[in-house]
TrEMBL record, chain A:
Cystine bridges: 30-72, 44-58
Positions of the Ubiquinol-cytochrome C reductase hinge domain: 21-82
Membrane-topology descriptor: Peripheral membrane protein
Subcellular location: Mitochondrion inner membrane
Entry keyword Disulfide bond: yes
Family: Belongs to the UQCRH/QCR6 family.
The protein, known as: Cytochrome b-c1 complex subunit 6
Automatic annotation (TrEMBL), chain B:
Family as reported in the entry's similarity comment: Belongs to the cytochrome c family.
Species this chain originates from: Brassica campestris
GO cellular component, one term: respiratory chain complex III
Names of required cofactors: heme c
Quaternary data: Component of the ubiquinol-cytochrome c oxidoreductase (cytochrome b-c1 complex, complex III, CIII), a multisubunit enzyme composed of 10 subunits. The complex is composed of 3 respiratory subunits cytochrome b (MT-CYB), cytochrome c1 (CYC1-1 or CYC1-2) and Rieske protein (UCR1-1 or UCR1-2), 2 core protein subunits MPPalpha1 (or MPPalpha2) and MPPB, and 5 low-molecular weight protein subunits QCR7-1 (or QCR7-2), UCRQ-1 (or UCRQ-2), QCR9, UCRY and probably QCR6-1 (or QCR6-2).
Protein name: Cytochrome c domain-containing protein
Keywords annotated in UniProt: Electron transport, Heme, Iron, Membrane, Metal-binding, Mitochondrion, Mitochondrion inner membrane, Respiratory chain, Transmembrane, Transmembrane helix, Transport
């Protein structure tokens, strides 16, 4: 079973391993939980792409998606940090 | 227009009527007396139109407000959040290092002195050595001249700019605020600053930010003058902790929280102690009051009736 805590652990002190930012990593792992707002945002992007007026934007859907991701990441993040 | 005229007539009639006791009945009677064939329908349609317009305008205002207020920041479980929790002083020490190396080039912290760091993040010797690295203007001397000397513990942390105008000039008109009280000066300060520092992202489709500004959803309005400053391994921590963006964000916010509320630990201890003692005092006072009042409260009244 996919276990984000192991995946995003920054405890790897080996010099050759690239440091992984736990927040970015957890945001990736929270994407599956927030598929619905993500799809809404992508649908909005498609609609806005054809817009010539410059007034249309996807801030609402963007905020909904990131709010969902933030709610998911928030309680878990500090467990990965010193 | 016709419906509006009828409505005004009805209002005038209501206002001039001597008694407002039966406003509904008089309104109904005036309505039947004065209404023409189609005007009530027109009036109803006008009211419906006004309602729909109101609802629509609310929705557009709401979406403009979203970016204006900024994305709501999540609540992170800070180690010093609990009722008896102290600061993570190792985190404060790392956070000061981040401030010094990343933030101090633009942000002042003019309310903090080097001596405040002693016993919190550094030993006295370390703080003295840090202070000695900076040059401070002092004076006048016996000859009436100002001179520069190495810093002492009693000196404030150095300011990057001489004044606000210089700061604005160097940063495209934007003033990098002093950070001494920033976590108290912003709503939900600790979470907001952490979210802001680690929240630089690509803007949503349809939003373009002008040259010189950067997109940050947590910043009210979305366009912030400060670029992304926390990048992985921008700083090398002395204690060997990997300096990821999130780690630096956590440490610097711990440092800023301490800087804004250095009294927090003492305050929590005092608060716990005095709330406990005052609760005991309350129980004692309640018992004593009831003891003294028992004399009066257990009085009996005898009704002596003479037939």
């Amino acid at each position: 079973m996919f276990h984000p805590t192991i995946w995003c652990d920054s405890d790897d002190y080996r010099a050759d391993v690239e440091v992984v930012d736990p927040k970015k990593c957890l945001e990736e792992s929270c994407k599956p939980k927030c598929v619905k707002p993500l799809l809404e945002y992508q649908a909005c992007v498609k609609r806005v792409q054809g817009d010539e007026s410059g007034h249309k934007h996807c801030t609402g859907q963007y905020f909904d998606y990131w709010q969902c991701v933030d709610k998911c990441v928030g309680p878990k993040l500090f467990a990965e940090l010193k | 227009m016709v419906g509006g005229g009828v409505f005004q007539q009805i209002l005038r009639r209501k206002l001039h009527s001597p008694s407002l006791a039966t406003p509904v009945r008089s309104w109904l009677s005036s309505k039947t007396a004065h209404v023409e064939a189609g005007s009530s329908g027109v009036r109803a349609f006008a009211l419906l139109g006004a309602g729909v317009t109101g609802l629509l305008s609310f929705s557009t205002v709401a979406s403009a407000d979203e970016a204006e207020h900024g994305l709501a920041c999540p609540d992170y479980p800070w180690p010093h959040d609990g009722i008896l929790s102290s600061y993570d002083h190792a985190s404060i020490r790392r956070g000061h290092q981040v401030y010094q190396q990343v933030c101090a080039s633009c942000h002042s912290m003019s309310l903090i002195s080097y001596r405040d760091l002693v016993g919190v993040a550094y030993t006295e010797e370390e703080a003295k050595a840090m202070a000695a690295e900076i040059e401070v203007v002092d004076g006048p001397n016996d000859e009436g001249e100002m001179f520069t000397r190495p810093g002492k513990l009693s000196d404030r942390l150095p300011q990057p700019y001489a004044n606000e105008s210089a700061a604005r000039f160097a940063n495209g008109g934007a003033y990098p605020p002093d950070l001494s009280l920033i976590t108290k000066a912003r709503h939900n300060g600790q979470n907001y600053v952490f979210a802001l520092l680690t929240g630089y992202r690509d803007p949503p489709a349809g939003i373009s930010i002008r040259e010189g500004l950067h997109y940050n959803p947590y910043f009210p309005g979305g366009a912030i003058a400060m670029p992304k400053m926390l990048n992985d391994e921008a700083v090398e921590y002395e204690d060997g902790v990997p300096a990821t963006e999130a780690q630096m964000g956590k440490d610097v916010v711990s440092f800023l929280s301490w800087a804004a509320e250095p009294e927090m630990e003492e305050r929590k201890l005092m608060g716990f102690k005095w709330i406990f003692l005052l609760s005991l005092a309350l129980l004692q006072a309640a018992y004593y009051r009831r003891l003294k009042w028992s004399v009066l409260k257990s009085r009996k009244l005898v009704l002596d009736v003479v037939n």
